[in-house]
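Dear colleagues,

As part of the handover before I leave the project, I'm documenting each prediction I ran so the next person doesn't have to rerun anything. This entry is a single chain, and its sequence is reproduced below.
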Amino acid sequence: MSDAPLSPTLKELPKVSPDLKSELQDFNTEKLKNAETNEKNVLPTAEDVAQERTHQDLIKGVEDFDTKKLKHTNTVEKICLPDKEVVEQERVHHNLLKGVEGFDKDSMKHTETNEKNPLPDPEAIELEKGQQQLIAGIENFDAKSLKPTETQEKNPLPTKEVIEAEKSA
């Protein structure tokens, strides 16, 4: 440690003129204006600090990583070349494309297109309309328009006595 004192001695302090000294002692603080202090140094949030710490830990981990802990591996590069069949298929496909691309359209003959749209004859149309009306009539039939009826049995079954009499005869 050094022998120098921590604070300056009275002799080492700067000298203040007596006029300034009396002016400072007589200063009235009530003459000062009130002012609001706006602090512009915004401190980071706890989340920002945690995020920065995580980032620093990650960088430190990468910098301090010991590559001697890694295992040696051999990289095997595999070049997969197509076999003869695939090459032949591509050649045929390429030749087909060349044939289509290089086709001479002028060597073609002009043809007329006849559109044929066979419509049914009027009788078939009327028959189909009749069937559709019949189906619509059945589907839309109102059963409430029917009159109530009573069923009368005209062929009654014989009673047990009549059957016994026929058996004994």
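The chain has a mean pLDDT of 85. The first helix runs from residue 18 to 25.

All the best with the project,
I.
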